[in-house]
Design brief:
The chain is α+β, with helices and mostly antiparallel strands and 388 residues long. Helix content is 29%, strand content 25%. The structure holds zinc ion (2 copies).
Amino acid sequence: MEKKDLYEILGVSKTATQDEIKSAFRKLAKEYHPDMHKNEQDKKKAEEKFKEIASAYKILSDPEQRERYDRYGWDALKTPAGSGYSEGFDFDSIFNFDMGDIFSDFSDIFGDFLGFESQKGRARGKKRKGSDIRYDIEIDFFEAVFGAKKVIEIKRKESCINCNGSGLKPGSKMKVCSTCGGHGKVRQSQGFFTIVTTCPKCHGQGEFPEQICPECKGEGVQNKKRKIEIKIPAGIENESYIKLENEGNEGSSGYKGDLYVVIHIKEHPFFKRQGDDVIINLPVTIGQAVLGDEIEVPTIYGLEKIKIPNGIQNGEIITLKNKGFQKPYSSSKGAMHLVVNIEIPKNPNSKLKELFNQVKNVETENDYFSVKEFNKIKENFKKGEKNG
Ligand SMILES: [Zn+2]
Ligand SMILES: [Zn+2]
């Protein structure tokens, strides 16, 4: 990456105040936030730009680092080996932190204007979303055809009734952490180094309950069993899921995860499904295949009259429109395909045998396209043998 001027990246002057820098950063960060870009390529570009902006802001928003950058330029941000120059940056590492780190580091800025959460939940007092729940359910083939209502029972975390989700014993208060003075972080100086770590006493919260709620042990949430009705739409596909928003686990401060119900459809011995289409095997007799016929066939919606055209071949497909699965959340339907399977009688009755004998005697190669082709090849083969 080229070493661009940090002030140029943010579009501010060298004399810009901290507020001007912050507001320039907010504006640019909003513009280049990857979530604002749908197209994959735009997203990638925006992410690069976003990292650049975040890096520039990270340095310029810190008065100490800004001063060093002003004085020494990019050289100030390098760490000369063994120099004890501890607070400098390694150039590459500046631009190579991951997006999650950026959000986490700047969550106090992002939190209020973009509405997304710190992905690592590190920021103090951040509302944490509860986790999602997956529930697998098996339904019958025809429930998938027509849709169904199901009641499922799930176990999930819900806000504790006793403490209203605070984790505090009712009547007691939060106490400011004396170890970190409410900052959630503690600084330790070791020679040149200043190490900032999460406060071990309050785990970064800056405060902790005087007395914890005995019902939820201070967690603020409790396990609850809940019955939930789900509506399975007609035509739902196997292995697809239905998302029920806010029906997952409740996190701290009432943010709920989602519930994902994954649908498994039992196979049907007769009807096979392919996307929105239904496929069945259609056994056809020799007589029907030669002369054609009109018959009734089962579809997923009941019996249906169809025509078998005369001269139909083995493996040919008869298609019935609108006899397949309903496309979910739509009124159109797939098709039903009947794959012709001409059956040859293995033990024909005596009358049939007699008739087939007559057939065999009167049929010629002109009645059979493939037989005629085969005979032609055979003839050529014989001639070839003679010549050779
Ligand atoms: Zn409680
Ligand atoms: Zn603390």
